[in-house]
Structures are given as C-alpha cells and as structure tokens.
Design a protein that fits this description.
mainly alpha
C-alpha cells in the first residue's frame, strides 16, 4: 500500500539507507532480534510495526500473528499488539477501555481532583449525565460577542459553526484541549482533520503517542463501526495521510506547554 511504502521510505531516510527498498533483504523476527539488541530501539520498532499494520486501512489475523512473533522474538510486550488481538477477537469495548486507561484520561482526572476537588469531578459528571450548567454555558456564549480576531471568538465558533454543544449545554463536555487543538492548529473537523488533531495531541501530551493514534485510527482509518458507535461518530476507512499526520505530530512536539493543562480563559480576549 502507498502509505505503508511511505513509512518505509521515511524510515530509510532517517537511517540514511540509500538502497532501493525492494532490494533490501527480508529477514525473520529472530534474525532481527539477533542484530537489534538495545531495548529502547526494540520498543520503538514495535510501535512502528503496529503503525505500519494499520496504514492500508485493514488489520488482518495474519498481521497480528506476525506482530506477536516480532514481539516474542524481541522480548517486547507492546500493549498495542494486544489491543489489535482484542480487535480480531471482537472485544471492542475491552479494547476501548484499555486504550482509555492508558491515555490522557487518568492523568486529567487526577489533575482535576488535585486542583478542583469534588467540584471539578462533579462538573465532569454533570456533563456525562447530560445535565446543563447555565452559568458555564453563558460564559461560552459571551465569547461569541468578542472581536472576530480573538481566541474566544474562534473557540465559540469552533462549537457553533460545527453544531457541537459547548460546555454547559446538554452533552457539552467541559474539556477544551481537543477543540483548542482545532482552533490553534487550524485543523478541520472532517476525518482528515481529526486525524491531524490526533497527531498534534500525540506530540504534546505526555503519554504514549501510539495510544492517541489508535484511539482515532479506529474511527477514521480502520473504520471500526462498534468503536465509532461508542464515540457517537460515523466510521471511515483509509483517511490517514502519513506525511500530514507526522507534520501535525511535530507541531505538537514543538509546543512549549501541554494544552490539556493549559488555562485558555486569561487569553480569550
């Protein structure tokens, strides 16, 4: 697949490999393990192999079995391989839960608890229960009255123009970092834009980038219908462009702060 070929090209460029990729000898996982001994390099390679397996918008039983062979040979227990095995077995909810627990969510909840206590957790709980928060909703509505070259105006219209409920409204989630990514990076809300935001977030979040990728990949690259249904979005296949995803990832890496913990309110005007 062209995207798989592109990842190999990127790897070859990074390694300074000048040979034609088709001329590179194919070796077995055990042969690779004999030549690749550093644990960090082994772990990094396994993550790239998981990424590689998704780039043709399909993950097969044969691919997962091969990933498991590589993991065994390299002595690397990459959890993402287990997630793909769960996918093959139809355990989508278990996979979604496992990805979520390894994502930004636990750290976010811990941060809210330490900074806001029960009030902060109750704010999240109200949104999850579909309850409204008129005071918070009014605060967001006021952003629409700001000058059109302000952050606040752009944030308001990120919600309003896309028909998304903003925090304080029914089903409006009071977590802004994802929407701030759209606003600050200029990425749209179509599947291609959401994949770019996933790359952007993977770059600045202090979490495993592969987890962030897989959470969005399931929706807009592999098109896993049950996963999309859990998230309340349509499923799409084959929408990832590797070069733009990596560009977004590098942009995220260049940020000097983690948007998950950044307070935008002092900057809205």
């Amino acid at each position: 697949h062209s995207q798989e070929q592109r990842l190999l090209e990127i790897a070859a460029e990074a390694l300074g490999l000048e040979a034609e990729l088709d001329a590179v000898e194919t070796i077995e996982p055990e042969e690779l393990a004999a030549g690749l001994t550093e644990s960090d390099s082994r772990e990094a390679l396994m993550k790239r192999l998981v990424l590689l397996s998704t780039l043709d918008a399909e993950v097969s039983e044969e691919e997962v079995a091969l990933l498991e062979r590589y993991g065994a040979a390299l002595g690397v227990e990459e959890r993402a391989v287990h997630n793909l095995r769960q996918l093959m077995q139809g355990h989508v909810r278990r996979m979604a839960f496992d990805l979520a627990r390894r994502s930004f969510a636990p750290g976010m909840l811990k941060s809210i608890w330490s900074e806001e206590g029960l009030a902060g957790l109750w704010r999240l709980a109200k949104a999850a229960l579909g309850l409204t928060d008129p005071e918070l909703a009014a605060r967001f509505e006021a952003l629409g009255e700001l000058a059109d070259d302000t952050l606040g105006y752009a944030v308001f219209h990120q919600f309003a123009d896309n028909g998304f409920p903003y925090p304080g409204q029914k089903k409006g989630i009071p977590i802004l970092f994802h929407d701030l990514g759209h606003v600050l990076a200029g990425y749209g809300t179509e599947p291609e834009g959401e994949l770019k935001v996933a790359g952007f977030q993977a770059g600045y979040l202090n979490e495993d980038p592969l987890v962030m990728y897989l959470m969005i990949c399931m929706l807009f690259q592999l098109g896993i219908e049950p996963m999309a249904k859990l998230r309340g979005v349509p499923a799409y296949k084959g929408r990832l462009d590797l070069d733009t995803f990596l560009e977004a990832f590098r942009r995220g890496q260049a940020l000097e702060c983690n948007l998950l913990h950044w307070d935008p309110w002092p900057h809205m005007e």
